[in-house]
Design a protein that fits this description.
homodimer; alpha/beta; 434 Repressor (Amino-terminal Domain); Rossmann fold; 3 domains; six-stranded parallel sheet; six-stranded mixed sheet; 12 strands; about 45% helix; DNA-binding
Chain lengths: ~350, ~350
DNA sequence: AGTTTTTATGAAAACATTTGCATTACTATT
DNA sequence: AATAGTAATGCAAATGTTTTCATAAAAACT
């Protein structure tokens, strides 16, 4: 008889305590204007006394939205994604949605599995990173009747709504900067490009630009590193300690660039005197490091925010058409590059 | 009549197409051993053809677990938390759970709100950071019948299960190192300690140690910075440019320490020659920066992993008692500190 | 061949809600 | 005073599953 724990507290318990029917309790939550203020107060009191918490699972069964959004990213644990995730989260949170998150470690099978789980939970919308996904994944998404958006990538012909930047252009910008400064001995430090359209696009932009400038890549100077500052540092050390070293290194992203900066320091090479470095991303810390990292700014925060807004509005019906947003990117000149007038 | 979209595909649709009852379909999912292999095949085929996806909301209504875990963190967008989140996520993922995540930006009201939302979704477990939470929050959690765990903090008397490290000890260790090296002119760079027990505990450990050593803090050298490398850098620059500067700076965490390193560089101060720096955390990048950051290692990955395991097992019933795990912490000597034999 | 056991399936109740429809009790209008 | 209109509430059906119980069919015993 006492109202402490044990007795499960559902809408019936509340109704009983407030001396009304369950319909009235339900209405008092969902259409408060339809119920007498006095009654409402009684109900509120009962709710508080019992610590009642509505069961969204039961609501969801009525075609009512679940209020959740599924977000799948390659990894949470890295500068870039952490920032978009945060922005995306804040943005959808403001619209009242709750995020389900999963990371797949660049394994597209796991991505598919995560997506399926989300759909079992009847998420109202889906967000993913980039446009490299399995055929199955695309089909799965298209089969559902819920909006989906991809972040970080931008192309006019993307299969899903996208909000991001033109990664190829980012590569072009970075390369043009180095080339424009007179560098011809250029090293590349990129993450694996398999199943990673962002990295691949950047790389292709770089290669095109280099080719146009009549510069050809020396295989020894074209190095790959996983997305880790430790890996990047040791890869860069190997490159810098070899007898012949480039005058400039272009990195697929700022984390790798950071690794190069530290590697140079450890090799007693002065930046930018002995080596120029350019990154892509402009992550947190890139402007604070000494000297400040010259990089192509990708507006992570804005991408996350816009994507969150877009998705939320697509769900609530305030926005109906799909959309492709390309954010502006720009090269930020800081202190890691200097003109190079060497013989080539 | 056609099986393309529109017609909602629920368990009835599958049953119809496979020519069995819905009970059989349900069973074929939940207790496959009870249904004839031939029938199962028919059902599987129908499922695939229709693209049926089970509705966990409907399952959840039967007291079946929702398969979700709610995780609330101060912020996603920072080195420390990103790493625990990743580890925690991987760990509970392996147990089949899906994560709901929210960040509150060090606002305990928002934390409470996020928790409520999670509970509406009937999460099976709850994970939060640290032990500074509102009274309401604690009461809310205790009222529910689901396991909860806090990460990053450790104390024998914590109100909830905790898996973390003794932050006070971390402060002690950091301070002892500096003191042991002969430093007496010590500056402190800490984040705001309001609603942040981790920072507060570290600070108190530092203060105690300094006091015991007969060193008193100079207010001008006791500076505060938000948890941002940019802020930390400029705060440190102000400190380092003042006429009197400490011989060593102790930072509340590695991000702030990184700011100090950059600040020193920008002030043309050599580390460790002109200034010793010690951090707390040992985040990614701390060992790669040049010189490597001397810091107190907090095992973020392990904390996340253990907490994920503990929570998962508490949910599945494999583990029943609450638990308090204190991970080992240790000072890692790298290159940012050197003995100091100055007059004080 | 008859009986028991096992295997496979279906019917219907249960889960915690929302909502359309019906009902009651007022208030306003004539 | 009778009627119409409105406000507030309850009843019961519906939502998509799982599960208990009952039943039928098949297999294994006598």
């Amino acid at each position: 008889m006492s109202d402490n724990k044990v007795d499960k507290v559902d809408i019936f318990a509340v109704a009983k305590r407030a001396n009304v029917s369950i319909s009235t309790v339900s209405r008092s939550f969902n259409h408060p204007e339809l119920v007498n203020p006095t009654t409402r107060k009684k109900i509120d009191k009962a709710v508080r006394k019992l610590g009642y918490i509505r069961n969204r699972a039961a609501q969801t069964m009525h075609g009512i939205r679940s209020g959740t959004i599924g977000l799948v990213v390659p990894t949470i644990d890295h500068a870039i994604f952490a920032e978009v995730i945060q922005a995306f989260s804040d943005s959808v949170d403001a619209h009242g949605f709750t995020i389900m998150i999963a990371s797949h470690g660049y394994d597209l099978e796991r991505e598919y599995a995560a997506l399926r789980k989300f759909l079992e939970h009847r998420v109202d919308g889906l967000a993913l990173i980039g446009e490299d996904h399995s055929q199955e994944t695309y089909e799965l998404i298209e089969r559902q009747n819920i909006p989906a958006v991809t972040m970080w990538n931008y192309s006019e012909t993307s299969r899903l709504s996208c909000i991001g930047a033109d990664n190829k252009m980012a590569g072009v910008l970075a390369a043009q900067h180095l080339v424009g400064l007179g560098h011809r001995d250029i090293g590349l430090l990129f993450p694996p490009t398999k199943d990673n359209d962002r990295a691949r696009d950047r790389r292709s932009g770089v290669q095109k630009t280099l080719l146009n400038a009549g510069i050809n890549l020396i295989p020894d100077w074209d190095v790959e590193s996983t997305y880790s500052i430790a890996d990047a540092k040791s890869a860069a050390q190997r490159l810098l300690r070899s007898p012949q070293r480039p005058s400039g290194i272009l990195c697929g992203n700022d984390v790798l660039a950071m690794g190069v900066l530290y590697a140079a320091r450890s090799c007693n090479l002065d930046i930018p005197q002995d080596l120029s470095v350019v990154g892509i991303g402009d992550f947190k810390g890139s402007s604070e490091v000494e000297p400040g990292l010259t990089t192509v700014r990708l507006p992570a925060w804005e991408i996350g925010r816009l994507a969150g807004n877009h998705l939320s509005q697509s769900i609530t019906g305030d926005l109906t058409n799909e959309q492709r947003v390309g954010c502006d990117i720009v090269l930020i000149e800081r202190g890691t590059c200097k003109p190079h007038f060497g013989i080539s």
